[in-house]
Design brief:
154 residues; mainly alpha; flat
Length: 154
């Protein structure tokens, strides 16, 4: 069997439980590599995603128009009486922009949650002490400005 015959094998996953000696032969590893490469290529949906993005941006394939309108008119391009009116409503752009915004923020928008009440209470006490010190100093400053002797500096 030549190399050319091995590359033309159908897309069938070789037995992964084969012995190491079997896995070292071209008869096993070339179909195995071809299987995984073809599987990855088959699951590539970039063309479908591009088609949807083009449609959202108003670039629609004529075959899609024909598919959508074939129930309403005999042939696309001819003037015909339609049963209803097709309104020009852009409902895709807000959806597209929302999902694109969510996709952009997906990897950089982190939130940390703390479920330990002792840490939360300690944090709140430190914040309360700082706020109280600021309020007390502000009151002392205003009393000193008004002429009361508080015995403390501004």
């Amino acid at each position: 069997m030549s190399e050319r015959d091995l590359r033309a094998t159908p897309l069938v996953m070789p037995d992964q439980r084969a012995s190491t000696a079997t896995k070292q032969t071209k008869a096993w590893y070339i179909p195995n590599c071809n299987y995984w490469i073809n599987l990855a290529i088959g699951q590539n949906d970039k063309t479908v995603t591009q088609k949807f993005l083009d449609a959202a941006n108003g670039l629609v394939d004529p075959k899609t128009y024909e598919y959508v309108l074939r129930n309403y008119i005999d042939k696309v391009g001819e003037k015909a009486v339609m049963y209803g009116e097709i309104r020009d409503v852009d409902f895709l752009t807000p959806i597209k922009e929302r999902y694109m915004g969510e996709f952009i923020n997906m990897f950089s928008n982190y939130q940390v949650f703390n479920n330990d009440p002792s840490v939360t209470l300690a944090r709140n006490k430190v914040l309360a002490d700082k706020v109280m010190a600021y309020c007390n100093q502000e009151i002392i400053n205003r009393l000193n400005e008004a002429g009361f002797n508080t015995g403390q500096d501004n």
